[in-house]
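Standup notes
- HV: blocked on the assembly model, inputs below
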Amino acid sequence: MSELLRQHIEKITPLTDKEFDYIFSHFTTRKYKKHQFLVQDDTAVQHDYFVLKGMLKASYITAEDGKEHILQFAWEDWWITDYQAYFNQTNATLTIDCIEDTEVLALSLFNREKICSEMHKMEHFFRRKSSFGYVALQKRILSLLTNSAEQRYQQLQNAYPQLFQRVPKTLLAAYLGVSRETLSRFSKM
Amino acid sequence: MSELLRQHIEKITPLTDKEFDYIFSHFTTRKYKKHQFLVQDDTAVQHDYFVLKGMLKASYITAEDGKEHILQFAWEDWWITDYQAYFNQTNATLTIDCIEDTEVLALSLFNREKICSEMHKMEHFFRRKSSFGYVALQKRILSLLTNSAEQRYQQLQNAYPQLFQRVPKTLLAAYLGVSRETLSRFSKM
């Protein structure tokens, strides 16, 4: 399973076997069952998670009405955590839980900073990942500002068709910010 | 004026005089008048801009109705460009123009990658900046998903009071995604 992480890093920077083994020694493998939590609201966030297998979601629960708003899905070859809490070492405002049985590689902030400081190429890898992530979030903000919910539904379906196979409609609605009923209307069109 | 860039980088990593001079040699100083464009829709994006003086906005114009949606403001000590176009070296989908007379330091992608590859500490600096930027955009997405326009107005005013002194109400409305009339209602409360 470590091969998935190696391929992922090598899309940005090549590694020797020795370098990869050293990097990999900073991760720990963890398995979770469907519905299990990786991050709970108002608790410390120790790790960033690289997904080997499964599907997760990061969500924010509105205090007033208990409504779930999904910030992010993650599946194989994606990273997920509560980044605000992780980078600032504060308590989580998000909850992260499993939509399927899941296997991840967990990286503590200490180990992330350690391998970045020891290996220029890992600093480079994470800079590139962050830059691409920043661009993706800017696109999502523009989409929220300028597109209708129906346009956002179509974009999501075109970009990530497998999401529609693996994730219940209720959760897609919570990601798009529409009701379950509105979503059903889109999917019939 | 180069002192502002040095202080900005040294918030994350200390530099010797020689290191800073070398880094600074990769930037070019540019001055623009109010209303002048730095980036125009559908043209190449050569530079990322660090603001020494002035105020700018990055916006997306909806093709159907010509409506302006503001993605970002930038002023002293901030960076701005069309990052999607800059990192991928594609044409701009945003326009960036000056709300005040402005002075910037421009950094080409070639020079950015050059100083990052030559100096581990600059790779570190840009990784940290990107990570913080990513967190800020996640917060904005959550705010768009969970808060009313009025709550977002209050948050903006609390976080950046100087923005309300320097930017016309019409532009604040285009950032918050509300009409000029709705914004006036908030500001009277």
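- HV (later): unblocked. Strands of chain B lie at 28-32, 37-39, 47-53, 55-61, 68-75, 79-80, 95-98, 102-108. Chain B touches chain A through 31 residues (CB under 8 Å).
- Next: hand off to the docking folks.
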